[in-house]
Design brief:
The complex is a heterodimer of chains A (94) and B (617). With 94 residues, chain A is an alpha+beta fold. Chain A contains 2 helices and 6 strands. Chain B has a domain of 198 residues: Rossmann fold (3-Layer(aba) Sandwich), CATH 3.40.50. Chain B has 28 helices and 11 strands. The chains are: A alpha+beta (94), B alpha/beta (617). The interface between A and B is large, with 37 and 46 residues. The complex binds guanosine-5'-triphosphate (GTP) and magnesium ion.
Chain lengths: 94, 617
């Protein structure tokens, strides 16, 4: 059921996916901390909901668990996801 | 500091801590449906069932005890007992959002592990139900090892139960059992998820209202147009909805003035009441309806959850000037008043970002400037429609606000390239679920604003105006000389006039500039007082409205220059004081006053010269 990994920025809207990998090194420590506090971690389910951006590329709103969060594209580009409902065999995911 | 037992409300942002605080203590803390509403510690008192008082503190929301911004730092310091002069709380009320349990439980577990007596308020169960979730508080309580009470803070549900549990805690119920040293982040998170899943008894798929609405409101183009349209309607409404109640208030003020004239013998007391009090303060009070309409819109934006959407929509634009969408929330709040706006910048983690936002917040047109805009616009801009449902006066008002916003963005851009240079920070924000505000909450909010405004009118505005009246009334001018010029105030204004004459300001304006720093509305009451004093014996002049009198004495160019000045105007004392506190010193405060002064002068000058060149002088 899982397919090739892709960046969260490229994930089609409203398509269930789960986090495959997060490139923590591409984020500042406090951004990384905040994303973690939002519940983003390997295996968490995500769904891109809206792409913003008037006058330039805007942020992305996505669902993580039951929460909707907004992040810049630069953050989303550091997150690799796979489509599918949730990690096979993991107790994570919403 | 009191010797009472101390209980702290703590939890994730937007969990409903302040709503619970208000319900338990009867306080009226500000609520809003977006993260980062509360930015400082607020204390209140609560009585236990045996009548013993307890001190309850409401804290800023935070995601963990590792703060990333100044408001979160406050929470950490209070919880860990590191706040100066404050003892550590004796117990915690951990507030979690039932509709977002797995995320909120992680922080709850972190707090429970501190080992303080704790009770968990499982708040917003109504929203969880709306989302099709049914939770079992008993399972949650068993898993967490602390009492868990279901609450709906805004409907005051579950409060008695919560109070009972607090009784228990205060009467020495055992502190929670903690499993040794704090576990690492990932372990706690897995644990939180496991517990959340165990507590969910039923989960039915629900309509995703919020996501559906967001498809429109967050749409790249439509969303932006809606945001602009919203602000446009807001300022149109300020003019069109307010005219009837404002006329009524004006009628009352006039009647009060006549009553003074009819009952008191001519003399100094009569003049004082008529010119200094009724005329001056009355000229400000007639703007109450406009201010309430503005606040109605701001309260709606805050309560529905739209604030976070506005931040989302504006992020791309804000990024271009070196800020983030986050900063747009304090800026929107500054439409009400720059003081809470500047306080709200505490939610911004990057210090340079935050400083820049503080420096530009005063450029957002605050509600105290409304009377000034309102007076000049209604005197000089004809009340006609320029399109279907679009009044010219409302349009000019909107443009003045836009002028302020654009000025703020340009200022931010320049500041970020020069004095507050630094890495541009990111934008990471939680988007709350939409809620429809309850009418009674809106009414209470408006009532509070009305009381604040009238108090302001009755204290600082009245006081400043009385001082001004005295300075304007003495010494008495000989015949043929204007009292407002001959008096002490007139002579001081004469000095100021030399400075501002080049940008088209007349003596009336010069006189109003200095006292308007106490409160901006004083610009209006001061001008009203000048005219009342000068018109002393001229009954006909007294019968005219303030606007009409202005038309006779000011050119359009002067009026426009005055408006331009007030877009940037030097800041009021409260703004200066809060800036000094939030930037911890005079350096940036002085810088802010200086650059805004220069901007105001240049803007007024350019406006005046351009208007004169177009033949409006
Ligand atoms: N439906 C519902 N709404 C609630 C409840 N409690 C609070 N709210 C609303 O949720 C929003 C957030 O409430 P606040 O009390 O401001 O939240 P807070 O935890 O103090 O938030 P911060 O100060 O930002 O940390 C407000 O719009 C409240 O009216 C509840 O039990 N049910
Ligand atoms: Mg709060």
């Amino acid at each position: 059921m899982s397919v090739l990994p892709l960046r969260l920025t490229d994930l089609p809207l409203r398509q269930p996916a789960y986090v495959d990998l997060i490139d923590w090194a591409a984020l500042t420590p406090s951004e990384g901390q905040r994303l973690r506090e939002f519940g983003l971690c390997e295996g968490a389910s995500v769904e891109a909901l809206h792409h913003g951006g008037f006058l330039g590329k805007g942020p992305i709103a996505c669902k993580v668990g039951r929460m909707t969060i907004a992040m810049r594209r630069a953050h989303a580009a550091a997150i690799t996801v796979r489509t599918g409902p949730e990690t096979p065999g993991s107790e994570l995911g919403a | 500091m009191s010797g009472l037992p101390l209980v702290a409300l703590v939890g994730n942002p937007n969990a409903g801590k302040s709503a619970l605080f208000n319900a338990l203590t009867g306080a009226r803390q500000k609520l809003g449906n977006y993260p980062g509403v509360t930015v400082e510690r607020k204390a209140g008192r609560l009585s236990l069932s045996d009548g013993r008082p307890v001190e309850l503190v409401d804290l800023p929301g935070t995601y963990s005890l590792d703060p990333t911004s100044p408001d979160e730092q406050v929470t950490r310091d209070v919880i860990l007992g590191k706040q100066d002069g404050e003892k550590r709380p004796d117990a915690l009320v951990v507030v979690v959002d039932a509709s977002n349990l797995d995320n909120h439980l992680r922080f709850a577990l972190e707090l429970i592990a501190l080992g303080l007596p704790t009770v968990v308020a499982l708040n917003m169960v109504d929203l969880a139900t709306r989302d099709g979730l049914e939770l079992d508080a008993n399972i949650l309580s068993r898993e967490l090892g602390v009492p868990v009470i279901s609450t709906v803070a805004v409907r005051k549900r579950g409060l008695d139960h919560l109070r009972q549990e607090l009784d228990g805690l205060m009467n020495g119920a055992p502190a929670p059992y903690t499993k040794g040293p704090a576990a690492d982040f990932d372990t706690v998170r897995s644990e939180a998820r496991r517990i959340a899943r165990a507590a969910i008894v039923r989960e039915t798929p629900s309509r995703r209202l919020t996501a559906a609405v967001d498809r429109v409101l967050l749409h790249p183009v439509i969303g932006f147009i809606i945001l602009l349209a919203l602000l446009f309607v807001m300022f149109q409404a300020v003019f069109s909805w307010a005219s009837a109640p404002a006329d009524m208030l004006e009628g009352w003020v006039t009647a009060l003035g006549e009553a003074v004239t009819n009952t008191l013998p001519p003399g100094i007391v009569h003049d004082f009441l008529l010119q200094g009090v009724v005329g001056g303060v009355g000229a400000v009070i007639v703007f109450l309806p406009q201010i309430l309409i503005l606040f109605f819109f701001i309260l709606m934006l805050e309560a529905t959850g739209y604030m976070a959407r506005a931040a989302f929509i504006m992020d791309a634009l804000m990024a271009r000037v070196g800020l983030s969408g986050r900063a747009f929330i304090p800026l929107l709040s500054s439409f009400a008043c720059a003081v809470p706006g500047i306080m709200a910048t505490r939610t911004i983690s990057d210090p340079k970002d935050r400083l820049t936002t503080i420096l530009i917040a005063p450029l957002m047109t605050c509600s105290a400037r409304l009377p000034v805009y309102g007076l000049i616009i209604s005197a000089f801009i004809p009340a006609r429609d320029v399109g279907p449902g679009i009044g010219l006066q409302g349009l000019v008002m909107f443009l003045l606000y836009v002028f302020g916003v654009v000025g703020a963005l340009i200022a931010a851009w320049v500041l970020r390239l020069t004095v507050t240079k630094g890495q541009s920070s990111g934008f990471l924000m939680e988007m709350p679920k939409y809620q429809w505000p309850r009418p009674q909450d809106l009414l209470i909010g408006l009532w509070q604003r009305a009381v604040i405004f009238l108090k302001r009118a009755g204290t600082i505005i009245l006081f400043t105006n009385i001082v001004l009246w005295v300075l304007m009334s003495f010494p008495k001018a000989p015949d043929g000389v204007r009292q407002s010029e001959y008096s002490i105030a007139g002579r001081i204004a004469g000095g100021i006039h030399l400075l501002v004459e080049p940008i088209g300001f007349n003596r009336d304006i010069s006189l109003a500039l200095l006292p308007s720093m106490a409160a901006r509305e004083v610009a209006v009451s001061a001008i009203a007082t000048v005219y009342a004093i000068d018109a002393e014996d001229d009954v006909e002049a007294l019968d005219k409205g303030l606007g009409e009198r202005l038309q006779g004495r000011w050119s359009l160019a002067t009026a426009l220059a005055f408006l331009a000045w007030f877009v940037f105007a030097p800041q009021c004392i409260s703004t200066i004081a809060v800036t000094r506190r939030e930037t911890a010193g005079w350096k940036w405060t002085g810088f802010m006053i200086g650059y805004l002064f220069v901007l105001a002068y240049v803007a007024a000058g350019v406006t005046y010269w351009a208007a004169v060149a177009m033949g409006l002088g």
